[in-house]
Amino acid sequence: MKIDIIGDIHGCFTEFKELTLKLDYRWETGIPVHPENRVLGFVGDLTDRGPESLKVIELVWELVIKLKQAYYTPGNHCNKLYRFFLGNKVQVAHGLETTVAEYESLYKKDQQSIRKKFIELYEKAPLYLVFDNEKLIIAHAGIKQEFIGQTHAKVKKFVLYGDITGEKHPDGSPVRRDWAKSYHGNFSIVYGHTPVTKPRILNNTYNIDTGAVFGGKLTALRYPEMELISVSSTMPYVEEKFKQFD
């Protein structure tokens, strides 16, 4: 399988289109198609904070659900938007407010359409993706070796939020353990969730969330080549949003 895995898009549709063009996808039909039948994979967090979250949803739904030409696994922002669309009580903050504002500006029938598409996309998505006889795993915030093959609540929490301790930083963000440091499995794990200034490769894990929505880059990992391709963001740079590792 030849797959191009895209980091957290967060509504940055312009960067997504530019990145796929750089990966040699063609947009003649209005969707990215690769002449050599490569496919796209998404690590989650399609929406929130960026300017065109609904456009990203429409496109990913078409690729994954309608055409079955791409793969998607959800992130924590996807989970929150899903709960919002179900009518659950969620805090419309931390980026969700931008997606909700876009949604509320639509006509009623367009709202119903995008809501239905996203719910379908989310409900049909696996918690994490396993490819190539378990050589490649795509999980939004990563996954521990012992969780692979499981889908219980503890795994879901880890895959969506990372290895959280339950404590909070002064800014309110959760304290997370650096799970990649102690990972020593044979599977290549590709993930996002934590913005880094450049892709972080450690112990056969690849963090490709390079903070497109915070003015960094949008990054793809080409598999099986393991080649990293990035495009610069059009968004303002917000230095404090990027995680520095020891």
Automatic annotation (TrEMBL):
<protein>
    <submittedName>
        <fullName>Bis(5'-nucleosyl)-tetraphosphatase PrpE</fullName>
    </submittedName>
</protein>
<dbReference type="Pfam" id="PF00149">
    <property type="entry name" value="Metallophos"/>
</dbReference>
<dbReference type="InterPro" id="IPR004843">
    <property type="entry name" value="Calcineurin-like_PHP"/>
</dbReference>
<dbReference type="InterPro" id="IPR029052">
    <property type="entry name" value="Metallo-depent_PP-like"/>
</dbReference>
<dbReference type="InterPro" id="IPR041780">
    <property type="entry name" value="MPP_PrpE-like"/>
</dbReference>
<dbReference type="InterPro" id="IPR050126">
    <property type="entry name" value="Ap4A_hydrolase"/>
</dbReference>
<feature type="domain" description="Calcineurin-like phosphoesterase">
    <location>
        <begin position="1"/>
        <end position="196"/>
    </location>
</feature>
